[in-house]
Amino acid sequence: MRFLNCFIVNKISGNGRALRVWNQIEKRLQEKNVNYCVRFTQKPKHATSIVQELISKEKVNVIVVVGGDGTIHEVINGLIGNNIPLGIIPAGSGNDFSRGLGISLNPDKALDRILNDEPQMIDIGLIDSTYFGTVTGIGFDGKVAHVVNNSIQKKIFNLVRMGHLSYIISAMKVLFQYSPTDLSIVIDNKLYNFQKVWLIAVANLPFYGGGMIICPKAKSNDGLFDICIVQGMTKFEFLRIFPLVFKGMHISSPSVKIMKGKEIEIHSPTPLMIHGDGEMMGQTPVRIRIEPCALHVK
To answer: Residue 159's pLDDT is what?
Structure first.
């Protein structure tokens, strides 16, 4: 049985960009006489079951995502616990996972990396029983992710390669309806109480929301989360600070606190929405922990 490079393609990622990228990549694979197989996702969470099927039936050399952060999220949740590396050819609207790991947005360069480079080990986050690779957001962030995922604008902006604008528009909608709340956070068994919290972002990588640098110093190989807590500001102040996140300059605000930890528990008087990698993950209370060196990435 031959070892295969297995590609999982989400044809609708990036409003169809993933399919166009795959057609380009397939030609390169054939030119290079690379042994490969391909599977196309058909529905939400399909990529997870495809991974499990491939691992059980094939001799897999690498599993490669041709798609965006949502598809990567699903594949990670099928791969954890195996030594098979994850390859990524970015073709989504945000591509924050790839950006955080320095993977080229050029499909040919991304493919060369997969075929030629040694895999690197990275940490992975765990929310209750579901894994995430980039950032989990609680509160304002979770609500925005929910609105983005149900937004018509997301598809429109994806067509012109400006997917991050759908996040900005959704954030403005949520801003005028959202009320910050008091909550408690336990970080590595130490209790902290915060008042008027807008959001908490627990980051394994710096980026989310299509290029926002929520935790500029987050690293995926240090065994720690960076935790961004935004609290105690008015809506006007929040609106003034918000654009600074695209350069990571928001952390200079006295209302923004950055902490580090391996295990976090968040409790709030009323349930707050949670996303991980932009995918909805339930509500508080929540337990989040780091899984060091849990995934090989090419």
So the answer is: 45
Q: What's the DSSP call for residue 244? A: G
* Residue whose C-alpha is closest to residue 134's, from 212, 204, 86: 204
Q: What is the DSSP letter of 95?
A: -
Question: What gap in Å lies between CA 203 and CA 226, rounded to an integer?
Answer: 5
Question: Which of 98, 123, 151 is CA-nearest to residue 221?
Answer: 123
On whether the CB atoms of residues 104 and 18 are closer than 8 A, the answer is no
Compute the distance between CA of residue 294 and CA of residue 221 in angstroms, rounded to an integer. Answer: 10
3-state secondary structure of 150: coil
Instruction: Give the whole-angstrom CA distance, residue 241 versus residue 255.
Output: 10
Task: Return the pLDDT at 290.
Answer: 98
Q: Six-digit token pair at 256?
A: 């923004």
Q: What is the DSSP letter of 162?
A: -
E strands present in 204-278 = 207-208, 212-213, 225-231, 256-261, 263-267, 273-276
**291 beta partners:** 124
The CA-atom distances, in angstroms, between 258 and each of 91, 212, 243 are 31, 16, 18
State how far the Cα of 269 lies from the Cα of 262, in Å rounded to an integer: 24
pLDDT over 90 at 2, yes or no? no
pLDDT at 202 over 60: yes
Evaluate whether 13 touches 98 at the Cβ level (below 8 Å): no
> What global pTM score does this model have?
0.91
pLDDT tens digits for range 82-112: 999 999 999 998 899 999 999 999 999 999 9
Tokens of 214: 């929520």
Average pLDDT over residues 40-68: 95
* Residue of 143, 145, 187 lying closest to 290 (CA atoms): 187
